[in-house]
Specification:
Helices cover 0% and strands 39% of the residues. By secondary structure, it is an all-beta fold. Among the domains are: 14-65, no CATH class; 135-267; 312-385, Hormone Receptor, Insulin-like Growth Factor Receptor 1, Chain A domain 2; 390-459, Hormone Receptor, Insulin-like Growth Factor Receptor 1, Chain A domain 2; 464-533, no CATH class; 550-607, no CATH class; 756-829, Hormone Receptor, Insulin-like Growth Factor Receptor 1, Chain A domain 2 (Ribbon), CATH 2.10.220; 1053-1127, Hormone Receptor, Insulin-like Growth Factor Receptor 1, Chain A domain 2. The strands form 53 sheets. The chain has an 8-stranded mixed beta sheet, with no helix packed on it. The protein has an 8-stranded mixed beta sheet with strand order 14-15-16-17-21-20-19-18, with no helix packed on it. A hairpin with a 4-residue loop joins strand 103 and strand 104. This is EGF-like domain-containing protein. Residues 311-341, 382-415, 456-489, 530-563, 604-637, 678-711, 752-785, 826-859, 901-934, 975-1008, 1049-1082, 1124-1157 form the EGF-like domain.
């Protein structure tokens, strides 16, 4: 037994009691102003009534009843109801009955015989309004009815019907029946049924009842929970219908109070949080817990786990599970992993107010760690700000993720527009290489096999890695070689071999590159692809034994060998460098006899007479050429001379018919003329003629003309010669070809022969000579001189001034021959292999197969950086090169690579250090910090016309290849405008983001030397930050939730309070807590209050009004055993039950039946002071007649007390 604990039955010892009643069939309670002693013993059913607790056991008023039951203020026996000393008669419409039992006072439910009946109050009687027959064959004795079960929208009661052998379910408001679904409640007997609210135990099985409003049905589910044993209750008759699990018998007074829990009566377990003591008779607090307010919460550092107090994590006072702490011990701080540490982990700092590890400055909690805020980086534990427009960085100068609308460059900075050769990637938010480009050394050159053409990477030729244009390769892919045509091949063409070092096709052994091919070197010949050496002194040969061109100073013989001196009958040809036949000789059988028509005279071939094949001297022919005939003058003619005919046998000319040889001719006989070989008769007056129309001697008195005709008078320019009988030439004339031209030294001028220039024999005009006189020589100017002019010499044969030694006539002068130069009038030989020179040491045009270099000498192979020009025969600069100071550097805009090739610089670049890096831009272009050339400098840069470089604009300084504004300036539309005063970095001219030394940034983005109220200076971030226990809101720092500002310090509000007006008065509670009228916060509102989810306050319940910080029921209402305010009787302001009034409303008076009336009944008068109906003077209050009680003690029914009121 345990004394003084709520929820236990108290046993009192009264040895002198008037009546005795065995426990537990006894109840003692106070109803109104009376105390009641109620005995439910099977053989002794009665109740006693007394105004004194002590008198209740000694001199009570005893009332016996066959059927006895009670609940709160009601005592029901037989057909009567006794409430607060007043008896009511139950009037039943369906049958008179004396067996009436109270089932539920709240809903006016009674058991009348085996009818479950709902009644209503009418004056001093109860009348039934509805009833349900339960078909109990034994009537009341073994009836089974549950307590009322409250759901959200309905309250039901369960009763067992013996006729249909099933439980039935009724709405307590009108006793309408509901159907059930789910499991079916089994029936064992009326004593094996335990109920607690909507939980029912039958035997060892547990069932849960719920209400399905949409179906208007009761749903029954069977649970796995069960009692340890099946209990059979003591024989209490119909107690079972009203029994509620875990309720307790109780009393309200007594000096030695001992309570027994009904669970012990049923041999059941202790209530939650309690365990049986060692004697198994008392319930004590479970281990690791302490008794508080009738419960046993776990001690600090322990948590309830399935009813047991398990230890929290180490150094933890309060935890939500064995692994999760919510409040640490003294000197320990709660981590985000809900563990307790004496020192917070890295990136966290201890908060002495909340006793938690919170994030440090410029940090935010993410996934149980405190990374630096966006735009900051951890530097030795401090969050330092990243570069401008950077969200994530790996150091203060290296960004890894940019802000919105910015892109990350390869220099790890953030830009709004990507640099040249880069493009923005919207997915990765980076500046990536454009199409067909790859990142190298922080730039994006075109990929291997591509070339930059106006910013686009165009593909090179097939198998080419590096090219200078789309058609010209400079470096081939792996396993390919560069040809001289700048293409790539897997196998080099004939005469070339692959060079594994340079990856080029180079000339093979004993070969040299010429005109994009590799012929064998001089002195070698290609034999099946190998260059074999030619004969000695041979430069070019067709086989190893046959030379086709000899070395310098050697000549090629007809035997295809090389000699320094040609054999007899041969002469050296200095041009062809071969031994050729001498003049008028022809090669026959490797010798050079004189040509047909020539005769060897002392080694020289002198010409025979014309058309003569064989002669005996230069003037005497002995055999004519084919188709020619030998004349009598030992000359050769194709047709025999006139008067002769050819003799095919002798190959000679003989006289024809009518002819006779005379003086080596065959004239026709006199008077005849030879006509086509026939002697035809001559012309008239002609004695001798040469043709029928040509006379040679005229008859007497006639003169022979030069036309061989005979005339009596001579023609113009002729005069008759009486001696010769011919027409002869006039003065200063001489016959020539049937005419009389002027004599030598004369010219015909209008029929007269005028004299030519001095010393001129033949002239074409008086000023132009064509043949000079004896001892004079004709110049190229058609004049005659006795001594030829400079560079000319006199030719005694032709009588002409001809070119001197090693000279040839050109344009009326005699320059030196090819390979010679005039030195003081003599043609001296030029340098070796030189055709034209300006001095004996300076050549201007080289010989065949040689090229003129810039030193004016001739070479067979041009020096490095030069290439041979086969057209001009000079060494010219190679591709993309220009001559400067006798060398060929790469042209402007090109750079020489390791192979000696000039590769193009970046676009618009004049001088570069590599194909990707420029050092001097072209005209109208400027050099950027990325070493590229642009026509317009990028944003933040300006062009410098002197250096031709993009330099930083005004108020800017170069940093990481860009020109941000100087400290204290901001870029506004490209101009650096000054930031606000004392500001180093700003986002606009009015908004600062970083202040100068000794200044702090306010939330208004201005700079101050002292922070405003509620802010404190942060020396790390150089900002005005919120003070302790404050958070920034709308540019100010109010105290955090749960704190209040007290003289500038944020002091903690009461427990579980978010907003308070002082440290002791709360105005708004935390989540899941409600504000009481005492301005404190509670998780559950105190009695008479209910939580308001809207205002988060504890407000008065229904029909209650706040008074003096409590919520009594409103006037006209009374609090029932459930704590609900039920309406008093009509016109009643204060009542002791819903049926008994103690104070009436205005203008109403309380009568003896505790009812309020506007007019007092007969013999009573209204008392304005007490507001009651009191007896009129000289009258005595009439007592209410009491109903006779039956004295049948055989079948008394006992009703157990149903409701629990905590014992005080």
């Amino acid at each position: 037994m345990t004394s003084g604990q709520t929820g236990y039955l108290q046993t009192l010892q009264y040895p002198q009691a008037a009546k005795s009643c065995p426990t537990p069939q006894i109840q003692i309670q106070k109803i109104g102003e009376f105390y009641y002693y109620i005995c439910f013993d099977q053989s002794n059913k009665y109740f006693g009534q007394s105004q004194s607790f002590q008198d209740l056991f000694t001199t009570p008023t005893i009332i016996f009843g066959d059927y006895l039951s009670n609940e709160n203020t009601h005592i029901v026996y037989d057909s009567n109801i006794y409430m607060n000393g007043t008896f009511y008669v139950i009037e039943i419409s369906f049958s008179p009955s004396t067996n009436i039992v109270l089932v539920n006072m709240e809903y006016n439910l009674y058991l009348i015989e085996d009818y479950l009946t709902k009644v209503q109050t009418a004056d001093q009687s109860f009348q039934d309004i509805s009833s349900v027959k339960l078909n109990n064959p034994s009537h009341i004795d073994n009836i089974l009815i549950s307590d009322a079960i409250n759901f959200q929208n309905i309250t039901i009661i369960i009763a067992y019907d013996y006729l249909i052998t099933a439980f039935r379910y009724f709405n307590v408001q009108n006793l309408t029946e509901l159907q059930s679904t789910g499991e079916t409640l089994p029936f064992i007997d009326y004593k094996t049924f335990l109920q607690h609210e909507n939980i029912i135990f039958i035997g060892t099985s547990q069932y849960t009842l719920t209400y399905i409003s949409s179906l208007n049905k009761v749903n029954i589910t069977k649970s796995s929970n069960a009692l340890q044993n099946s209990f059979t209750l003591p024989y209490f008759h119909i107690i079972y219908y009203a029994f509620s699990y875990s309720f307790t018998y109780q009393v309200f007074q007594g000096s030695t109070q001992k309570l027994v829990n009904i669970q012990q009566l049923l041999n059941h377990t202790c209530p939650p949080q309690f365990v049986p003591d060692n004697s198994n008779t008392n319930c004590v607090c479970r281990p690791n817990s302490t008794s508080q307010n009738q419960s046993c919460p776990c001690n600090p550092g322990y948590i309830d786990v399935n009813g047991d107090c398990q230890q929290c994590p180490s150094n933890c006072n309060v935890c939500t599970s064995q692994a999760i702490c919510s409040q640490c011990s003294q000197s320990y701080y709660l981590t985000v992993q809900q563990t307790c540490v004496s020192g917070c982990p890295q990136t966290f700092i201890p908060d002495s107010t909340s006793k938690r590890c919170i994030c440090g400055a410029n940090r935010k909690l993410q996934n149980q760690s405190c990374p630096c805020n966006t735009g900051y980086i951890d530097v030795n534990g401090d969050c330092q700000q990243c570069l401008s427009n950077c969200d994530v960085c790996t150091s203060q100068a290296v960004c890894s993720q940019c802000s919105q609308s910015y892109y990350l460059t390869v220099q790890q900075t953030c830009v709004s527009g990507c640099p040249q050769t880069f493009i923005p990637d919207s997915t990765s938010k980076r500046c990536i290489c454009g199409a067909n480009r790859t990142l190298q050394n922080q730039s994006c050159p075109c990929n291997t096999g591509y070339i930059d053409v106006n910013g686009d990477c165009q593909q090179c030729l097939s198998n080419c890695d590096v090219c200078t244009s789309q058609a010209v390769c400079s470096q081939c892919s792996q396993s390919y070689y560069l040809t001289v045509q700048q293409t790539c091949v897997s196998g080099c063409p004939q005469t070339f071999i692959p060079d594994s070092t340079s990856k080029r096709c180079i000339c093979g052994a004993n070969r040299t590159l010429q005109n994009q091919s590799c012929p064998c070197n001089t002195g070698y010949i290609d034999v099946n692809g190998d260059c074999q050496q030619c004969l000695s002194n041979c430069d070019i040969c067709t086989s190893q034994a046959i030379c086709s061109q000899c070395s310098q100073s050697y000549y090629l013989t007809v035997q295809q060998t090389c000699v320094s001196r040609c054999p007899q009958t041969f002469i050296p040809d200095s041009t062809q460098k071969i031994c050729i036949c001498g003049a008028n000789r022809t090669l026959q059988n490797q010798s050079c006899p004189c040509n047909t028509g020539y005769i060897d005279v002392n080694g020289d071939c002198q010409q025979c007479p014309s058309n003569c094949d064989v002669c005996t001297s230069q003037a005497v022919c002995s055999q004519c050429s084919q188709s020619y005939y030998l004349t009598v003058q030992q000359t050769c003619v194709s047709g025999c001379p006139q008067t002769f005919i050819p003799d095919s046998t002798s190959k000679r000319c003989i006289c024809g018919a009518n002819r006779t040889l005379q003086n080596q001719s065959c004239p026709c006989n006199t008077g005849y003329i030879d006509v086509n070989g026939d002697c035809q008769q001559c012309l008239s007056n002609c004695d001798v003629c040469t043709s029928q129309a040509v006379c040679s001697q005229c008859t007497q008195s006639y003169y022979l003309t030069v036309q061989q005709t005979c005339v009596s008078g001579c023609p113009q320019t002729f005069i008759p010669d009486s001696t010769s009988k011919r027409c002869i030439c006039g003065a200063n004339r001489t016959l020539q070809n049937q005419s009389c031209p002027c004599n030598t030294g004369y010219i015909d001028v209008n029929g007269d022969c005028q004299q030519c220039l001095s010393n001129c024999d033949v002239c074409t005009s008086q000023a132009v000579c064509s043949q000079c006189s004896q001892s004079y020589y004709l110049t190229v100017q058609q004049t005659c001189v006795s001594g030829c002019p400079q560079t000319f010499i006199p030719d005694s044969t032709s009588k002409i001034c001809i070119c001197g030694t090693n000279r040839t006539l050109k344009n009326q002068s005699c320059p030196c021959n090819t390979g010679y130069i005039d030195v003081n009038g003599d043609c001296q030989q030029c340098p070796s292999n030189c055709d034209v020179c300006t001095s004996q040491a300076v050549c201007s045009q080289c010989s065949q197969s040689y090229y003129l270099n810039v030193q004016q000498t001739c070479v067979s192979r041009c020096p490095q950086t030069f290439i041979p020009d086969s057209t001009q025969k000079i060494c010219i600069c190679g591709a993309n090169r220009t001559l400067q100071n006798q060398s060929c550097p790469c042209n402007t805009g090109y750079i020489e690579d390791a192979h000696g090739d000039c590769l193009q610089c970046p676009s618009n670049c004049d001088v570069c250090t590599s194909q990707a890096i420029c050092s001097l831009c072209s005209q109208s272009y400027y050099l950027t910090v990325q070493q590229t050339c642009v026509s317009s400098c990028p944003q933040t840069f300006i062009p410098d016309s002197t250096s031709k470089i993009c330099i930083c604009g005004a108020n800017r300084t170069l940093q990481n290849q860009s020109c941000p504004c100087n400290t204290g300036y901001i870029d506004v539309n490209g101009d650096c405008q000054q930031c606000p005063s004392n500001c180093d970095v700003c986002t606009s001219q009015a908004v600062c983001s970083q202040c100068s030394q000794s200044y702090y940034l306010t939330v208004q983005q201005t700079c101050v030397s002292g922070c405003p109220q509620t802010f404190i200076p942060d020396s790390t971030s150089k900002r005005c930050i919120c003070g302790a226990n404050r958070t920034l809101q709308n540019q100010s720092c109010p105290c955090n939730t749960g704190y209040i500002d007290v003289n500038g310090d944020c002091q903690q509000c009461p427990s579980n309070c978010d907003v308070c007006t002082s440290q002791a008065i709360c105005s708004q509670c935390s989540q899941s807590y409600y504000l009481t009228v005492q301005q404190t916060c509670v998780s559950g509102c105190p009695q008479t209050f209910i939580p308001d989810s809207t205002s988060k306050r504890c407000i008065c319940g229904t029909n209650r009004t706040l008074k003096n910080q409590s919520c009594p029921c409103n006037t006209g209402y009374i609090e029932d055993v459930h704590g609900d305010c039920q309406q008093c009787p009509s016109n009643c302001d204060v009542c002791t039950s819903q049926a008994i009034c103690s104070q009436c409303s205005q203008s109403y008076y309380l009568n003896q039946q505790q009812i309020c009336v506007s007019g007092c009944p007969q013999t009573f008068i209204p008392d304005s002071t007490s507001k009651k109906c009191v007896c009129d003077l000289n009258r005595t209050q009439q007592k209410i007649k009491k109903t006779e009680f039956a004295n049948n003690f055989n079948n008394i029914t006992i009703l157990a007390h149903k409701k629990v009121v905590p014992f005080v």
